[in-house]
Amino acid sequence: MKVSLNWLNKYISVDLSPEEIADKLTSLGLEATYQIHGKSFQDVVLGKVIECRQHDNADKLSVCEVDIGEKNNYTIVCGAPNIKSDIIVPVAKVGSLLQNGEFKIKKTKIRGVESNGMICSGKELGINNDHDGIMIIKSDAKLGTPFEKIIKLNNDVFFE
User: 153: closest CA among 42, 43, 38, 45?
Assistant: First the structure.
């Protein structure tokens, strides 16, 4: 049986960590494990695609200039079919972690063009299963705002 910590907190006040709860349930003879569901990324920010042009050496890639509210814009190579200028997008900067830390964004050269980050899809951020293109965000928030402040994630812990 799976039990949500958010659901449990509606009925009783629980101020133990998920690990402590699982340990206490197990010590009672109810073997328990837990999984944390929620944000699966770090250091992803809100950005705006300022310019988007066709990559000189690849038909399906675009070279984008992206503003994330810092002094200089970022050059990012993107393969999404829905990329274009003047859209607001989630941007994983160099050093950002995706997929619960399993994937680290690095500076890389793609067909001769240096890419300094990644414009993300919902699937890459663990938000949904949409991998057909990057997420396009409607927001008036300041560029560079942490992406988790832009979207509402239902963080929860599930015990089994």
Answer: 38
Cα-based distances in Å from 78 to 13, 50, 85, 99: 46, 14, 12, 19
For the stretch 21-73, pLDDT in tens is: 889 889 999 898 887 776 778 899 999 999 999 999 999 999 999 999 999 99
Q: What are the tens digits of pLDDT across the range 101-137?
A: 789 999 999 999 999 999 999 889 888 778 889 999 9
| Model pTM above 0.85 | no
| Three-class secondary structure assignment of the chain | CCEEHHHHHCCCCCCCCHHHHHHHHHHCCCCCCEEEECCCCEEEEEEEEEEEEECCCCCCCEEEEEECCCCCCEEEEECCCCCCCCCEEEEEEEEEEECCCCEECCCEEECCEEECCEECCCCCCCCCCCCCCCCCECCCCCCCCEHHHHCCCCCEEEEC
Tokens of 74: 């970022």
Backbone angles phi, psi at 110, to 5 degrees: -120, 110
